[in-house]
Specification:
37% helix; homodimer; Aspartate Aminotransferase, domain 1; 2 domains; three-stranded antiparallel beta sheet
Chain lengths: 353, 353
């Protein structure tokens, strides 16, 4: 740290992303990435986009938005694209929290909410999940802060129903941000509620269910006035936030939506199968609505399991927060990758019995 | 605007980027883009990167940084890559300005400095250029604010020498940010000064001289402690800020550095030739160290020239600030494009005489 860093930032604890090893070094199940290759014609879209990249990219993401509307049913003034959904969340913190409002979110949830709140110098209201790690909707009713809820939640994998989210939205006068990074694996989305409620922001990403984690594409669906607000912030930070290569690739991905939907189905099947298999190994696994499983073993610590899996060539995520210290979060890869995880777990658990 | 937008932002005036028309609609000379195609093997790099884009991108931009070091002579802990140089500038405002410090910059310069200062709620010290639009180095000596200087400056196209910049840096205890977006067209860079001065940040971009405006790639060269500060902010906003497609494309562009250097030479020749031709049409043109020319005509207003050129299929930039209202900024395209501009200007000026 230099002597020049703003003092407000000098004490800030940055987000700690999951480890990104060299490709091929591990079976990588630590950052909930999509395990399948892109649809066949997506690479050509990237190739073609290079021919026009000397020009600034389309700030309105016109082609991407048109294709998005075909798949998601929302476009025009109700959609904004971002450099990954992290940027979308940051924009919401900038636009809708403010000095006197602050932000409310769960104690166990996506770690970036707290970082953004600190970065923006906001008051935080931390609302604990209940004992079984559920978000209790009524805890969020009549909140005086801007609310951020990951639904499904990470790293628990649990979800609120659309009706429960609606209860929160209609029992608040302020903004409610629903982070749907994992919604495609859950069978439901709250996007439809944005037509009814002018205080709801739905954030999503192409990282998890559309294989674009590295290419960075997030989106916001909301009432047109909220999109206008967020756009104003984009135009005050980085109007060309979504580059032309990503726009082209995202458009091609959406044109191949059936392929990605099939992959998501396959991931959900693999997840449910994997959950059953580790339960039969003695794990307690929370039924997951995401592309990961959050589980603990009654005899072995989360840290131990994560470190032993690493020795066996499998990278998963362990968080050191006290409440979830016993758990591990295992991303769902291909069936073959999950077979390897089960074999390794048998070895680890068997080896110590 | 919604009722939810933070009041600090509600009065904010966002940056107004140059118009981005549909490709082919105009001879587009309004946003200082690179007029030549990419080097032949760059598109393949984008194609290949799609195969790995389901994984999060490399936060350290390892391959890109290695190639950057070969070309620029700086790498490791002295370099940071960003989602365009706008993001680099924003990070500098966040990291190095702070509530009690604020920012100082010229009255006529890149418009985003003022927007960032407002967005961050900073006190601004606006330092006027002198009568011939020069930055006066001593005006910046002993400044109590963090200094931002575009060098060469936009939209004037004038530059300070490395010695003049050094004078500013060594006569300040605080951070000096030198924005070198156009430095490749000027024949000099202040990057070497970062080895000597721990309060100097040099920002650059691949948009102007490397044909990547749409793909978004900026960089910072500075003392390792300043890079550490900026990295901390990146990790508090968007650790995966530079996507994998852009990283691959940027690496390929750097591997073809000779091609881009030749293009830059060609652009400089075209610029000098174009400058002479419009002077012979009666324009007053400031000798330019960039890929654009800032010029005015004694008889026709800047607004008139821009609007008439538009009618003739040529898009250039006119700014409405009082001090530069007479001027137009014309980006340098291919020789053929500039022939068209000269023909159109002859028609416009001739037509009214």
């Amino acid at each position: 740290m230099s002597i020049f860093l703003d003092e407000r930032l000098s004490s800030l604890k940055a987000y700690v992303p999951g480890e990104q090893p060299k490709p091929g070094e591990f079976i990588k199940l630590n950052t909930n990435e999509f395990p399948y290759p892109p649809a066949p014609d997506v690479a050509q879209a990237a190739f073609d986009a290079v021919g026009g990249m000397h020009l600034y990219c389309d700030m309105n993401c016109t082609c991407l938005k048109a294709e998005f509307e075909k798949v998601f049913g929302y476009g025009g003034n109700n959609v904004l694209f971002t450099n990954g959904s992290d940027e979308a969340l940051y924009l919401c913190f900038l636009a809708f929290c403010g000095k006197n409002r602050g932000a409310a979110f769960a104690d166990i949830t996506y770690g970036f909410y707290s970082v953004y709140a600190d970065l923006c110098g906001l008051e935080k209201k931390i609302i604990p999940l209940d004992n079984d790690f559920s978000v209790v909707p009524s805890d969020y009713y009549g909140c005086d802060k801007t609310i951020f809820i990951a639904n499904p939640n990470a790293p628990t994998g649990k979800k609120l129903s659309v009706e429960e989210v609606e209860g929160i939205v209609k029992n608040n006068n302020g903004i409610v941000v629903i982070d749907e990074a994992y919604a495609d694996f859950s069978g439901s989305t709250c996007a439809l509620l944005t037509e009814k409620y002018k205080n709801l922001v739905v954030v999503g990403t192409f990282s998890k269910s559309r294989g674009m984690a590295g290419a960075r594409l997030g989106y916001v669906i909301a009432d047109c006035l909220l999109i206008e607000d967020l756009n104003k912030v984009v135009f005050s930070i980085n109007p060309y936030n979504v580059n032309s290569l990503t726009q082209s690739v995202g458009t091609a991905v959406l044109k191949n939506n059936d392929y990605y939907a099939e992959c998501v189905d396959e991931i959900c099947k693999t997840r449910d199968d994997f959950t059953n298999r580790i339960i039969s190994l003695g794990f307690e696994a929370i039924p997951s609505y995401t592309n990961f499983v959050f589980a603990k073993h009654p005899e072995y610590s989360g840290e131990y399991i994560a470190s032993k899996l690493r020795e066996n060539g499998v990278l998963i995520r362990h968080f050191s927060n006290a409440r979830i210290n016993d758990y591990v979060r295992i991303s769902i890869g291909t069936p073959e990758q999950m077979d390897s995880v089960v074999s390794a777990l048998k070895k680890i658990i068997g080896g110590l019995k």
